[in-house]
Design brief:
This protein is mainly alpha-helical. About 70% of the residues lie in helices and about 0% in strands. The N and C termini lie far apart (about 45 Å).
C-alpha cells in the first residue's frame, strides 16, 4: 500500500475501525455495558490506526511523520482541542480517566516497528516493546473495565506481556516474512545464534528450545494474571478473563503443534473457544 493510500493518511474521513466479529477481542468487548464497550471500541480504533501506520504506512520516513501527527493529536486531545480522528476518545478520557502517557506509549511501541524492523532484541528491549504495545493498552482497558487502580495496573502489566508473548510465538513465521524477529537475543545466543536473520533463526533446528523458554515466561504471566483476577471483582474482570483464557488456548496450541518445519498456523478449535465463552462470558 502506498503512503498516499494508507488509511492512516486519510483518518478524518475514515469510519472508526471495529474488531472483527467472532474474534476473542470482539466477544470480550460485547460483554461490557454499552458505555464501556463504546469506550473500548474507541481505544481499539486508535490502536488499529497507529498499528496500520507501523505496518503498512509507506516509507519509514512517512511512517515517522504520521506517528508524530498522532502524538500531536493525543497532546491536543488532552489540551481540549481534539482533532476529528480522536474525537471518539473525548468521552472515554473524561469518563474513565484514561492517561495521556498510555496513549503515547502505544505510539512509541508502534514507532519501534516503524523506525526499523525489530530483529532479535535484547530481553530488556523486548519487555519495553511488550509494555508499550500491549500493557499500555491494558492500562487503558482496566480503567474502562472499572478495575481497582493498583490491581488493575498489575493486571495490565502481566496480561499484556502474556498476550504479546503469545502473539510472538504464534506469528514467528509471518513476522519473519516481514523481516522481523521478536525472539530475544539472549535466548538465541544460547543455541549458538549470534546475529541471525529472521529466516535463519526460525529455521534453526533448536529454535524450539528458544520458543519453549519464551512460552514458560508467558505462562508465568498468565498465572500472575489469574491470581489478580481471582481476587478482583468478577464484574470488572469478565472481559479480561475471557481474553486471558482465549489467548491461553493459542499458547497451548502452538506448544502442542511444536516447532518442526513446516509449521502450520494454529487456531484453537471452535468447541474450545465456545467453552471459554460459556465459562467466562456468562458467569
Amino acid at each position: 500500500m502506498s503512503a498516499t493510500a494508507t488509511p492512516a493518511s486519510t483518518p478524518e474521513s475514515a469510519a472508526p475501525a471495529l474488531p472483527a466479529a467472532g474474534s476473542s477481542f470482539y466477544t470480550a468487548m460485547r460483554l461490557l455495558p454499552k458505555e464501556r464497550r463504546e469506550a473500548m471500541y474507541a481505544v481499539y480504533a486508535f490502536c488499529r490506526a497507529v498499528d496500520d501506520v507501523a505496518d503498512d504506512g509507506g516509507t519509514r520516513a512517512v511512517r515517522q511523520v504520521e506517528l508524530d501527527r498522532w502524538r500531536a493529536d493525543i497532546d491536543a486531545l488532552y489540551a481540549g482541542r481534539p482533532a476529528p480522528r480522536v474525537r471518539d476518545l473525548v468521552e472515554p478520557v473524561r469518563r474513565f480517566g484514561l492517561k495521556r502517557e498510555d496513549f503515547q506509549a502505544v505510539i512509541d511501541g508502534m514507532a519501534m516497528d516503524a523506525v526499523e524492523d525489530i530483529v532479535a532484541p535484547d530481553a530488556e528491549t523486548l519487555d519495553l516493546y511488550c509494555d508499550r504495545v500491549a500493557s499500555a493498552v491494558g492500562r487503558l482497558s482496566v480503567r474502562i473495565f472499572g478495575m481497582p487502580e493498583a490491581d488493575g495496573i498489575r493486571l495490565a502489566w502481566h496480561q499484556g506481556r502474556a498476550l504479546q508473548l503469545t502473539n510472538i510465538l504464534r506469528d514467528i513465521d509471518e513476522d519473519a516474512e516481514r523481516g522481523r524477529l521478536y525472539l530475544p537475543r539472549e535466548k538465541l545466543q544460547a543455541i549458538g545464534l549470534a546475529d541471525p536473520t529472521p529466516v535463519e533463526a526460525i529455521s534453526h533446528p533448536r529454535i524450539g528450545e528458544v520458543c519453549a523458554s519464551l512460552a514458560r515466561e508467558a505462562e508465568d504471566h498468565y498465572q500472575a494474571t489469574w491470581e489478580i483476577i481471582r481476587r478482583s471483582p468478577r464484574k470488572a474482570t469478565k472481559a479480561a478473563r475471557l481474553m486471558a483464557a482465549a489467548y491461553h488456548l493459542y499458547l497451548k496450541s502452538v506448544l502442542a503443534r511444536g516447532w518442526a518445519m513446516p509449521r502450520a498456523r494454529v487456531k484453537p478449535g471452535k468447541l474450545a473457544l465456545l467453552g471459554v465463552v460459556l465459562r467466562h462470558g456468562l458467569l
